[in-house]
Amino acid sequence: MTHQREEMLPTVDAANQNHEALDAAARVPSAADLETLSRQLNRPVRDVVEIGARCVCGNPLVATTAPRLSSGIPFPTTYYLTHPVITAAVSRLEAAGVMNEMNAELGQDAELAAAYARAHDQYLAVRDAIGERSGTGAVPEIAGVSAGGMPTRVKCLHVLAGHSLAAGPGVNPLGDRALEAIAEWWTKDRCYCAGAWDTEGQAPSQDRSRHVKTQSVDPAIKQAQRAAARAAREAAANDPAAGSTEKPTA
Ligand SMILES: [Zn+2]
Q1: Burial class for 105, CB neighbours closer than 10 Å (0-12, 13-18, 19+)
Q2: Cα dihedral 175, 18, 34, 149 sign
Q3: What mean pLDDT do residues 128-157 have?
Q4: Residue ranges covered by each domain of the chain
Q5: What is the pLDDT of residue 228?
Q6: Fewer C-beta within 10 Å: the chain N or C terminus?
Q7: Residue spans with biased composition (Low complexity) (predicted)?
Q8: Ligand 1 centre and the CA of 176: distance in Å?
Q9: How far is the CA of 154 from the centre of ligand 1 (A)?
């Protein structure tokens, strides 16, 4: 599926390939970050392994999910937009038909289409790196599959905007454009956090993030835990009464 494009674009820009807006230290989610995420989304967050982008005040804008959930499910959508102000603004663009315009343009503008295809390649490369860092390793089930409609369509602007925030400008042309188009509601140079989510009372869940659960655990123990979880899943798969109601979301 990707062969033709790779012939057209023999190399992914090596500098771009691992381009991420935050450095390694800033990507590490603190307990406070995870609580903020659950408040922003008004639901428990799971399997968040990093913070993909931050507000100028430090609050998370984008949650980064490993390419395989702790439940074992392959998860192609690495970056999830969590800041309610940005999410709502991007929803307005979608409601206004911006995706149709972008899809039409992708069909007519070869240069844009090529840049968008490179964004897809970069997304996959960074996701592989995140899989390595978070310990999930390669996820062959979703090899070559990115998100948001990439590499040839636009199906979710939130995904593209999240990618642009995490990668920084110049990587995803349509994500960049979505961020420019929401400038009347959100810009990256200002904090829009005040009042954007409920900061009173208890956060929507106890924290069940993989990161926190295993943060200080020996890798060998982690591996054993994963093997045990896998065995439990296989057992559950053979027992229809034990079917999970979990949804594969961030
Ligand atoms: Zn802020």
Answers
A1: middle
A2: positive
A3: 96
A4: 3-195+205-242
A5: 59
A6: N
A7: 224-242
A8: 20
A9: 28
Nearest-angstrom CA–CA distance, 186 and 90 = 10
- Angle 41-45-165 (CA atoms, 0-180°, nearest 5)? 65
8 C-alpha to ligand 1 centroid (Å): 41
Render pLDDT for 86-131 as a digit per residue (tens, 0 to 9).
999 999 999 999 999 999 999 999 999 999 999 999 999 999 999 9
